[in-house]
Structure to design on (184 residues):
């Protein structure tokens, strides 16, 4: 009885995890409506915002800005680095831009306003593949740790790693249980 209860709660947990991870999200760029502008400080604030978020295939980026004064250009890495506005991949100037992230990898955006990219109005968004998101949830094995980490590895980090590995193994077992239930 206890074991069937356990697999039921595990099933719920896994279904919750699967739904949570597959639900497409809309990200308002910069976290607020006035964020697509030259950052007030020299720190790369739009990219800091991006680094604190997890973007997945199917999510969308949303920009709100004054259509008369600004625009959003999706560009190549080279154009991003040199703030080259001359031949963007896509140009959006409607003031309420939505870009769906349809593939994993890096997306590069710069402002179309004169001189704004040079002053930091630009954004890199890295979209995780499904495999990465499964790994983040502990449902897929982490990449093997490098063997040449050196002698400076504290024993606790080894213990933590094997605990994590055990947890991942337990979750994989749970996944098999779920598959068995579904295939029955
Ligand atoms: C900007 O990009 C275009 C198209 O790729 C290129 O022809 C041009 O030389 C670039 N301009 C600068 C200043 O790099």
């Amino acid at each position: 009885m206890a074991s069937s209860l356990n697999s039921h709660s595990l099933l719920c947990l896994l279904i919750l995890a699967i739904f949570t991870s597959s639900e497409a999200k809309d990200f308002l760029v910069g976290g607020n409506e006035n964020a697509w502008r030259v950052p007030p400080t020299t720190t790369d604030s739009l990219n800091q915002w991006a680094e604190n978020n997890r973007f997945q295939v199917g999510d969308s980026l949303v920009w709100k800005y004054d259509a008369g004064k600004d625009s959003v250009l999706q560009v190549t890495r080279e154009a991003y680095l040199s703030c080259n506005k001359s031949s963007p991949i896509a140009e959006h100037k409607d003031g309420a831009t939505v870009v769906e992230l349809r593939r994993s990898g890096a997306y590069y955006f710069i402002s179309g306003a004169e001189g704004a990219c040079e002053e930091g109005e630009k954004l890199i968004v890295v979209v995780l593949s499904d495999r990465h998101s499964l790994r983040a949830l502990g449902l897929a094995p982490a990449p093997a740790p490098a063997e040449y980490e050196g002698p400076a590895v504290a024993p606790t980090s080894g213990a933590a790693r094997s605990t994590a590995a055990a947890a991942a193994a337990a979750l994989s077992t749970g996944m098999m249980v779920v598959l068995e239930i579904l295939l029955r």
Summary: Residues 152 and 158 are 11 Å apart (CA to CA). The longest helix spans residues 155-183.
